[in-house]
Amino acid sequence: MIVTVTPNPSIDRTVTLPTTLVRGAVHRVQSVTTEPGGKGVNVARALTLAGLDTLAVLPAARHDPLVTALLSCAVPFHAVPIDGAVRTNLAITESDGTTTKINEPGAVIDEITLAALTQAILDHAARARWVVLSGSLPPGVPDDWYADVVAQLQPYDCKVAVDTSDAPLAALAAAFGTAAPDVIKPNSEELASLTGVDAQTLEDALAQGDPDPVVAAAQQLIDRGAKTVLATLGAAGALLVNDTGSWLASPPPITPRSTVGAGDSSLAGYVRADVGGAEAPGRLQMAVAYGSAAAALPGSALPSPAQIDLDEVAVTSISPYSTRS
């Protein structure tokens, strides 16, 4: 089973515009979609579509609209009860696929609820192959909570992935010595924030065919204790770096429609490939195929296996940065 954890879930409302968003102007909407969301929920939805045994763990009241939405999507879940309502996030997608996100902070989680959420994760981890911890932390949750959960999962016979940003990501990286997940999935800005490298420099280098700066940045994290870095860089592709090597994957040509859920789909693809027995290049290939397929879909739609084209994703092996002169 694959357990996904979303401490700050949401109802994701995506508004699609037929034109470019202009600040202060009046716009007419082309379409509106509403889906259960939050990064871990998106991973669970994608894996459920792929027929994998998945469980989404999250805080939500019994009759919250998110619970109703998960039931309608047939996504198995464990909801830890809370008093507040799950937040609603708004994404505005333009005609060229550019997406503007406006996210609410989320319901406050008190110490008792947080302890119950942590215990639920540990209970389900006992029979899990993967535990995927994803997204922002809601008010009331300390920045080092992900690091604490990863440390508590160390004795369990499961792999752990973390996809977060800002202070929770920094706290996790600071604890790599005792709480290193099997995979972290930073984008260019998150990788830059952890390594002191300019994000635009990483993207520009990769766009120009030079993966060295990205590999070097990821290698910093490997040297600090990270096991595998899956760096997703949007249209520029993605890199996978571990202690045995590094690989670059180039995405297929697509017409982008929405970036909502693309990074979550990438992580779902990585986990799906790993469960299927793929080695590192195959895991990266599946991750990029999933992320590209998601970006080509409208709103917050997630790809099914029928929409994944592995043959269109080229993977190239790169010599480990530390061995080059």
TrEMBL record:
One of its GO terms (molecular function) is 1-phosphofructokinase activity. Keywords: ATP-binding, Kinase, Nucleotide-binding, Transferase. It holds the Pfam family PfkB. It comes from the Bacteria. One of its GO terms (cellular component) is cytosol. InterPro entries: 1-PFruKinase, PfkB_dom, Ribokinase-like, Tagatose/fructose_Pkinase. Residues 11-305 form the Carbohydrate kinase PfkB domain. Belongs to the carbohydrate kinase PfkB family. This is 1-phosphofructokinase. It comes from Mycolicibacterium aromaticivorans JS19b1 = JCM 16368. The lineage of its organism: Bacteria, Bacillati, Actinomycetota, Actinomycetes, Mycobacteriales.
